[in-house]
């Protein structure tokens, strides 16, 4: 099916702060071609990790096979259950540099290992620097996904408890990750001066 089952969406995209047991990454996508002031939808659907291959790399292989016209502009929008890992962020950044006529927006339900002292935050910074627009999913984004990618049997999307609070918390964390490092150092110095 081109549409995701409701239970898969609700389980995998729930923006919990501690998402134990959720090992797969799901990626819902929309590909549009921009012609001056209008855009034309070319494809939409969803993917998930396959054995030994992360979903972001699967999508990049899929779209590279399209042989995109370098004279046209394309916009790709992703809604992902997890933010990209460091390696995937590197692949995406490289892909974007190879396709300057393509813009990528990524809306993420959760941040992958960004609370640990691992490379993932640096991967997000590099991805952002390469031109990807990255943000945390809000109620509006979950609502859009529910109506676009989910076999919802015309049921209205009902957010779960904590959806808004978790989106705000994760958006603040992402904003701190994306701050230039000199601004982070300036903030640390200011907190030291204030005794905080």
In terms of topology, how is this protein built?
Layout: E1 4-5, H1 6-12, E2 26-35, E3 38-48, H2 55-64, E4 73-80, H3 86-98, E5 102-108, H4 120-129, E6 133-136, H5 139-149, E7 150-151, H6 163-178, H7 181-194
Parallel strand pairs: 1-7, 4-5, 5-6
Antiparallel strand pairs: 2-3, 2-4
Helix pairs in contact: 3-4
Summed up, the domain count is 1
Structural class: alpha/beta
Low-confidence parts, pLDDT < 50 over ≥5 residues?
Answer: none
Separation, N- and C-terminal Cα atoms? 53 Å
Radius of gyration, rounded? 18 Å
How many strands, what sense, and barrel or not for the largest sheet?
5 strands, mixed
What's the SSE pattern? Answer: EHEEHEHEHEHEHH
Instruction: Please report the total strand number as a whole number.
Output: 7
Beta strand %? 15-25%
For the residues shown, what is the average pLDDT? 89
- Find the CATH topology: Cytidine Deaminase, domain 2
- Identify the CATH architecture: 3-Layer(aba) Sandwich
Number of helices: 7
| Residue share in helix | 40-55%
- The CATH class label is Alpha Beta
Protein name: Single-stranded DNA cytosine deaminase
Cofactor: Zn(2+)
Main location: cytoplasm
GO cellular component, one term: nucleus
Structure description:
The N and C termini lie far apart (53 Å). The relative contact order is 0.16. The protein has 7 helices and 7 strands; from the N terminus they run βαββαβαβαβαβαα. It has helices spanning 6-12, 55-64, 86-98, 120-129, 139-149, 163-178, 181-194; strands at residues 4-5, 26-35, 38-48, 73-80, 102-108, 133-136, 150-151. Helix content is 41%, strand content 22%. By secondary structure, it is of the alpha/beta class. The model has no long low-confidence stretch (mean pLDDT 89). The chain is globular and about 55 Å long. It has a single domain, classed as 3-Layer(aba) Sandwich (Cytidine Deaminase, domain 2), CATH 3.40.140.10. α3 runs parallel beside α4.
